[in-house]
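Retro notes
What went well: the complex prediction finally ran end to end.
Inputs used:
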Amino acid sequence: MLELAILGFLYEAPLHGYVLRRHIAALTGHVKPVAESTLYPAIKRLEKAGLLVRATEPGAVAAPRHVLRLTEEGRRELRRRLAEPAQREITDENQWFVLLAFLRHLEDPGAQAAVLRRRLAFLEEPTSFFYDGDRPIGAEEADDPFRQGILTIARATSRAELAWLRDTLASLGDVGR
Amino acid sequence: MLELAILGFLYEAPLHGYVLRRHIAALTGHVKPVAESTLYPAIKRLEKAGLLVRATEPGAVAAPRHVLRLTEEGRRELRRRLAEPAQREITDENQWFVLLAFLRHLEDPGAQAAVLRRRLAFLEEPTSFFYDGDRPIGAEEADDPFRQGILTIARATSRAELAWLRDTLASLGDVGR
DNA sequence: ACGCTATACATCGGCCACGATGTATAATCC
DNA sequence: GGATTATACATCGTGGCCGATGTATAGCGT
């Protein structure tokens, strides 16, 4: 997820680590703060994999900056990760949001629609959080207000996202199944 | 998060690993499947910490079962973790939902309300996913439909949860700030 | 007869994330 | 004048999570 965010932001413009960090903090930081000690090793991994290169520039106000720029391979890799996301990136809202943030970099509307359809299929599967044996328990019959809350909130989110997905798929010219 | 789920389910009744796993899968599995190779080491950690004990029973249909039962210390630890959640458990919806699922085990409504108030404070903070410099970018002006979607969905979720939080706080007899 | 699925546990290696800590400089606040 | 904050990088150790793999037994379909 972190690597996807790095590739996504650098796809738009070369950045140095510090600015990159602030972008990532804005995108996911309120939910899951990104530690510097996670970001810098991640940058190193991507560099080692040949997906980005560093150029050292004298620092504007402090230490010298390492300006990070995606290689052509890095640009291909971002598009690949966007087009073929892992199932976790479809199901986990945190990861899904990161993917959505950069989905515009897939130039083919059909490929974009295909990704949205995977999310749609996931949301259309019936899922409950609690079961009585095999029978799913609805929000009305949950035995405490907190579990009711989970079901209520999840349902509201799901409804909003389904509406948005269907609208967006339609405007992408997707003909449905 | 996993440990909290284990403690939470065992607080209600002793279970063996396999059933515990199915409960956890129902609670969080559609978003983030729980691997057996994560569950069993987690159980071991909790056992080593003195929070639960195992009793081996002959297996009903297969291998012998290890029935897991919380110790008094384990029960105290669950209540402590519920009453004093880490900030991540407040901000990350996945973790927050697990916490909510077991909040009923805090017997004091005041303590329950205090936890909900922390989530309320978090949701009331203004947060945007994207910035133009320091200025947050709203859903209307986001430059692509996918980023618009993120903002739209997040807003819908937030609105639903805020309504539920205020209702529930009121019914817990919370007088507000 | 054979394979598949469910029950029921367990280990191992690798990767990744995080907190703590370190090293500088420059600006701002009190 | 001293402390704090922001900029800008980096390492290290701990520990969690995961995929792959292993070991059994029992039932069910074909």
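What we learned: Chain B has two domains: 2-82, 108-171.
What to try next: split runs per interface for comparison.
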